[in-house]
Amino acid sequence: MFDDLFMSELTILARHGAENASLALSRLMQRKFLITVNEVKTVPIQEVPESLGESDAIAICLFTKVEGDIEGDAILILKENDALNLIEILGGDKNVNIEESIGEMELSMLQETANITISSFMNTFMSYLNKSAIPSSPIYIRDLIGSILSVIIMESAEESDNALLFSTQFECKNKEMEAMFIFLPSPSSLKKLKNGLTNAQ
């Protein structure tokens, strides 16, 4: 279903998106912040939990709805320890008890990081395709990875058949944090992506 050309172009654009997100976050933080894309995969939406593994691990999820010419759901997922390291790097309190209630400042930091990251990826894709896509403000969720994905997939399955998985790494102040960016496009939006990326060649 997804040929080599599509996957190659998708990977190239994802890495450009990561570079744009790195620049934006570096300007915001006034220090070098690096985002890299290590792997890009496409899987049927039902196989997303299996692809991520560790369904019993606690994770932080930032969830957005994407509207425009390209529609779908976008999700940034970090394991809890990686999210705490990110909070510390951003200037928040790493010892905040996010199990009970995350602080307003720490929540804002995570949401802004997700907003910049997701928007940078989407803007890069849309600029190439000459389309528009606008993510909503990120919603914060803390739960088991399996539980988070089950709920999102249940809600998205009626509108999405396949998922685009971008395995990413955040790096700042000698700390590395693993994150997964997931985009669940509607079937018509996925068709636009495929046609736009392959027909341009």
What keywords describe this structure?
globular; about 45% helix; alpha+beta; 7-stranded antiparallel sheet; 7 strands; Chemotaxis protein chec; 6 helices; about 200 residues
Short note summarizing the structure:
With 201 residues, the chain is α+β, with helices and mostly antiparallel strands.
Question: How would you describe this protein?
Answer:
This protein is of the alpha+beta class and 201 residues long. The protein has one domain (4-199): CheC-like (Chemotaxis protein chec, 3-Layer(aba) Sandwich), CATH 3.40.1550.10. Helices cover 46% and strands 30% of the residues. It is built from six helices and seven strands, in the order H-E-H-E-E-H-H-E-E-H-E-E-H. Strands 1, 2, 3, 4, 5, 6 and 7 form a seven-stranded antiparallel β-sheet that branches. Helix 1 (4-29) crosses helix 4 (104-129). The longest helix is centred in the first third of the chain and has 26 residues, at 4-29. The radius of gyration is 16 Å and the shape is globular. 37% of the residues are buried. The mean pLDDT is 87.
